[in-house]
Design goal:
By secondary structure, this protein is of the alpha+beta class. Strand 1 and strand 2 form a beta hairpin. The chain is rod-shaped, with a radius of gyration of 29 Å.
Amino acid sequence: MLISPAYAQDAAAAGAAGIVMQLAPLILIFVVFYFLLIRPQQKRAKEHRTMLTALKRGDRIITGGGLIGSVTRVKDGSDEVEVELAPNVRVTVVRSTIASLVRAPAAANDSK
């Protein structure tokens, strides 16, 4: 009796718009985090998994602990890889501890 029906309808519509306006910054923050943080991290993780599955004998690697070695044997169906750290020094490492492959330096192009 104290509130007219037209005013009550406007208040309900304004309430729904207010909720959307309150959620908009949160949604915007999530979108920014997704494209700047989450998506690039997922891309790097996928590249790392691909690198680990493509390991082969003779690849030079760096382990998570900073050891540099050469892959001597890849055990199929297992998470273990045998790595030679020095002549006649071989260790077995878990694939997930391999941080990266060592790329051979590109040969200097002597086009003179």
